[in-house]
Amino acid sequence: MFKHVIVKTPGRSYVNGLTTSDLGTPNYDKALEQHAAYVEALKKCGVEVTHLPANEEFPDSTFVEDTAVLAPEFAVITNPGDVTRNKEIIEMEPILKGFYQTIHHINSPGTLDGGDVLQVDDHFYIGISDRTNEDGARQLKRIVESENYKGTIVPLKEFFHLKTGIAYLGNEWIVAAGEFLDHPGFASFKKITVSAEDEYSANCILVNDYVIVPSGYEQTTRQLNDAGYKTIELEMSEFRKQDGGLSCLSLRF
């Protein structure tokens, strides 16, 4: 069960942030509305929300997930792979010190985005992507193993981040799309399979009694409901434009 969540309001500079999509410029007012709905959904899930103010210096800093990897016993401050995002960790570390006594760090030349890390119970899957390099992945693997967790490195072929295409829902269930549908590392799990057309919905999040899922993906939502999960659907159009998904917008612990 999650007790705490950290989120950060997008600043006006958000519309000028990094993106690989071709979906147009985000509407800032609409992004604020969608973010507010996201925060309310988290509260419905029964967590205490730490809500950080916008920082115009860092356009992408609403995507707080990339700044840290959190387990119940320890935190890892990452080293984001894009130079324009790297200093976001300076702002996040003091916040996490209010919750954790044990804090590790990923050090250069290693890079690591939190979006490339999927925790499955006592096992961390660590993606190697355009933002997370092998050095950073190996550093995290050593850290989690020193804390009596398991670590597995997963080189990515298709996805921007590991969690772009896979989510863990507990009880041996995953949501999987693309390269993860037949990935041998996840062969033992029960799968909710996401079609190529609905790929964006693979980035959903289990928060206590609910799975929060992007709206507009009826097949994914129906499969989740059929598997026994209660769902909350949220409009995510203005975050998708900047390569962002539901997991990107919060740190959950």
Distance separating the two termini? 8 Å
Alpha carbon gyration radius: 17 Å
CATH superfamily: L-arginine/glycine Amidinotransferase, Chain A
Q: What's the CATH architecture?
A: 5-stranded Propeller
* Amount of helix: 10-25%
The helix/strand series, from N terminus to C terminus, equals EHEEEHEEEHEEEEEEHEHE
Write the layout of secondary structure elements.
Elements: E1 4-8, H1 28-44, E2 48-52, E3 68-70, E4 75-77, H2 88-97, E5 103-105, E6 117-120, E7 123-128, H3 134-146, E8 150-155, E9 166-168, E10 173-177, E11 190-194, E12 205-207, E13 210-214, H4 218-226, E14 230-234, H5 237-240, E15 251-252
Parallel strand pairs: 1-2, 4-5, 7-8, 10-11, 13-14
Antiparallel strand pairs: 1-15, 3-4, 6-7, 9-10, 12-13
Task: Give a verbal description of the structure.
It is a single chain. This protein has 253 residues and is α/β, with parallel strands linked by helices. It contains 5 helices and 15 strands. The chain is 21% helix and 25% strand. It has a 3-stranded mixed beta sheet with strand order 2-1-15, with helices on one face. A 3-stranded mixed beta sheet has the order 3-4-5, with helices on one face. The chain starts with a strand and ends with a strand.
